[in-house]
Design goal:
- By secondary structure, the protein is mostly helical.
- It has one domain.
- It is built from 6 helices and no strands.
- Helix 3 packs antiparallel against helix 5 and helix 5 runs antiparallel to helix 6.
- The longest helix is centred in the last third of the chain and has 26 residues.
- It is flat and about 80 Å long.
Length: 135
């Protein structure tokens, strides 16, 4: 019994003292990863535009009801213009989160890549407009 406790304590001490901290950054870096200097931010803009343009049902059928741009007597659209929840309300809210924030995250990444690059200043400013439009 004492031997197993001693061996267990020695094993725990060995595990605690050993590690892979030497050259950890070099070991854990993916050599095939795309870095900022190799990435073309134009691809992120077109991807964000595609993601945003493909969200018609959520924006048209749910968000347009809030300011009463669209109004309906039919309850399929979620009754957003009447401020009463329906069975589709949670589904539309989840779609808003998934679709719009996915597009916005692409724009934010594009702006991070183009922030200090004068060559892409117009792309950075377009990203600001797109972020406002998406959100």
């Amino acid at each position: 019994m004492k031997k197993s406790i001693i061996y267990g304590a020695m094993l725990a001490a060995l595990v605690q003292t050993s590690g892979c901290t030497k050259d950890f950054d070099e070991i854990s870096t993916n050599p095939r990863e795309v870095t900022a200097d190799k990435m073309d931010p134009n691809f992120l803009l077109s991807s964000a535009q595609w993601e945003f343009s493909n969200t018609g049902y959520t924006q048209l059928l749910f968000e347009s009801m809030w300011p009463q741009v669209l109004a309906s007597t039919f309850d399929y659209y979620g009754n957003g213009d009447k401020y009463t929840p329906s069975t589709n309300t949670v589904n539309y809210q989840n779609n808003l989160w998934d679709e719009e924030y996915r597009s916005a995250s692409l724009i934010v990444e594009m702006q991070n890549l183009t922030k200090d690059n004068a060559q892409y200043s117009n792309l950075y400013n377009i990203g600001s407009l797109m972020k406002v439009m998406i959100m």
